[in-house]
Amino acid sequence: MEDQGRVPPITELTRIEPVYLERLEKQGIFTTGILLEVSETPTRRQYLADHMGASPVQVMEWRDEGLMLNLADFGPTEHVLLMQAGFPGLESILRTDLETFKARIHRAAQQLKIEAPSDLTITGWWEQARTLETLPDPEPVPPPADPAGAVLRLLIGAIVGSVGAVLAAGLTPANPPLAAIAVVVLVLGVTGAVGRLAARGLAGFVGLAGASFALLSILLGRGLIIALPDTPLWRDQGIAVNLPVTGLLAILVGWGIAWVAGQVGRRPSFGRASQRTA
């Protein structure tokens, strides 16, 4: 049985290159106990990595093995045994259930032709590991690509945009120009909002805007002139308005309004919840 007061030196680490061992010793880090102290938090690990010329991932590897070396009744022989069993550090122990942990250690002891630790000792290591550290949070996995869904949203957006353009063309009067612009803005603004609800995402917007603009260009491609008063500043002039472009801008505004409304709807109502609690 190993001395309970023994603190393993950093020279027992196997997952560290000699150049980093030298740098650690120059910083006064001679034992794994000190290493664990100076690498306890992410900020400390980053600080140590910067001073060692290493990465935070490498520091985590040193810490992981150092935690295992500081298990109770654990010495160089037990270190070799667990390495043989496929446990280079504490994290690998945390990822293993107790029965598998015992079986692999007993198998490694047979391979090394040494006496295996008692089940009580092995269980103690496994339980102590769970008090020293917890498993790191898994890296977020990006959602898988969905080309079929994108195509579907593109088609739905195109259908909504086409219906809106046809309605706008059918309801838009020839005169007066302001009435024609108002109808296009209203119908296509609603179309943009409906398109946002029916086909979200970039693909839906592209289908919506592309189909509506194409049909508006065919059905309402004429330009309008809003007459201005005849004054010395301008004579026989007016403001030219392109209905397809106006409709496209209205779709963009309607889409944006629907997006903002959706974001507001998701916001948690902390004030109301606190009032109900009170």
What's the topology here?
Elements lengths: L17 H9 L5 H7 L3 H11 L3 H14 L6 H9 L5 H5 L3 H15 L6 H14 L14 H25 L5 H22 L2 H19 L3 E5 L10 E5 H24 L3 H8 L1
Antiparallel strand pairs: 1-2
Helix pairs in contact: 2-4, 3-4, 7-8, 9-10, 9-11, 10-11, 10-12, 11-12
Characteristics:
13 helices, 65% helix, elongated, 4% strand, single chain
How does this model look, in words?
- With 278 residues, the chain is mainly α.
- It is 65% helix and 4% strand.
- The chain has 13 helices and 2 strands.
- The chain has helices at residues 18-26, 32-38, 42-52, 56-69, 76-84, 90-94, 98-112, 119-132, 147-171, 177-198, 201-219, 243-266, 270-277; strands at 223-227, 238-242.
- It has a two-stranded antiparallel sheet.
- Helix 3 (42-52) crosses helix 4 (56-69) and helix 7 packs across helix 8.
- The longest helix has 25 residues, at 147-171.
- The protein is elongated.
- The two termini are 60 Å apart.
- Residues 268-278 have low confidence and may be disordered.
Terminal CA distance: 60 Å
What level of helicity do the residues show? Answer: 55-70%
Give the number of DSSP strands: 2
State Rg.
Answer: 35 Å
Please, what is the oligomeric state? single chain
**Coarse shape:** elongated
Report low-confidence residues grouped into runs of 5 or more. 268-278
Structural class: mainly alpha
Spatial arrangement of strands, main beta sheet:
1-2
Order of helices and strands: HHHHHHHHHHHEEHH
The whole-number mean of residue pLDDT values reads 83
Note the beta-strand portion.
under 5%
Tally of alpha and pi helices:
13
Q: How is the biggest beta sheet arranged?
A: 2 strands, antiparallel
